[in-house]
Amino acid sequence: MRTVAYVFVIITLLLLQTTLLNFSQIYGVKPDLPLVFALCMAMIKGEKVGAVTGFFNGLLEDILFGRFLGLNTIVKCITTYVLGYGSRDIYKGPAVLTMALVFLGSILYNILFMLLAFFTNEISHPWYYFLPITIPSALLNMIISPLIYLAITKMERFFNYYFDTRY
Amino acid sequence: MRRLLRNRRWQLLVIFLIISIAAVNITLKNNHIFNKIEIPVISLLSPVQKVLSKVGYTIKDNINAIPQFFYLQEENEALKKQVTELLQYKQNFMEYQRENVDLRNLLGFKDRNFQYDLVAAEVAARDSGNWFNVILIDKGEEHGIKKDMAVITDRGLVGYTISTTSNTSKVMIITDERSSVSAMLQRTRDNGMVKGSIDPAPRGYLKMVFLPQDANLVKGDVVISSGLGGLIPKGVVIGEVVEAKKESQNLMQYAIIKPSVDFQKLEHVFVIRGEEETNR
Lengths: 167, 280
Description:
The structure holds two protein chains of two kinds. Chain A has six helices and no strands. By secondary structure, chain A is mainly α. In chain B, the strands form two sheets. Chain B has a six-stranded antiparallel beta barrel. A six-stranded antiparallel β-barrel of chain B has the order 6-7-8-11-10-9. In chain B, α2 (about 10-30) runs parallel beside α3 (about 30-105).
């Protein structure tokens, strides 16, 4: 049931990202809700759950807008795994820390995306738009991250209460 | 090394990477396999995307209408002036058209009039990332749309279709770095190639390359599609020149083009299914 709920959340976030969020672009860049969700999942539930969330989210993006399978799937899966693994032993209580980790995760995502897109001939001038895209999008992701982090912790508490409590 | 390979975590990682690389390779080379995967997912999600997009446009229109209220009188005056000017242009145009027909008849040319076979479509969704510019429209193969068809608005060229399902099509916008369209300057008829936002064009602008060294480029020159390559019909407006520069070896020139279409406000588009020649 918990898995079904998370799949539903990922699909909803992707639908919002590709429709309503297009109206909130700042200098042609928008925050990446599904990526922030996957990064927060990796921080809260560990690298494996994070990687699966990133994988599923990337796969849907590739199917909906890509020209082949794998670009977003691989990059999002690796990014979330690395962030989840790297933040294993870090106490993630303060919102500032969540924001910093999401910022780093977004930078890593853009670096990996750029490299894979370059090797698959999807982009030919990777460095020119690297900074104009990466820094604003990482900042936007960082700003929205505490909200999504909080939402996931609330959801987890709800699921724990309703599905895992044994009498 | 042997211990590392025995580790289950590393084994899984290696298997995942092999499968991923294979998936990239297979779907990159075999479009039909990717098509089989994308059809059910897009068919399932596109109706919801269409509804959400409509909600977004409604909210945006309402928000935009608030400040416009204060400028209505001023705008009305400006529009009246514009209508008068356009009526004058229309008169001139009709005069030139008649003159053109007469001259063509005198020279014995067959008078040809091309009309596009258009299909109207709505933008259902946009690429979720920030690197590429791809949109999803709500018309597909059932409406006669195929891969590599030009997509336009009343203002000019939007892009071309890159894949289709029965009820949707993916359109690559001309500002996407992967896009490339053969074009010409309307005034001088110099040919070139318009590419998506690449160095040194700012984001959202285009770069027209392979322009001859002696091409006389002026700021404001209109760029139209040249029809070469057969992807985009000839004469579709792409944008206007904002800057012209020589290439580093001075053998060619390039121009920075501002697209005529505002891609942020893209709501309705037309797909050109073909050209129909009507003889008068």
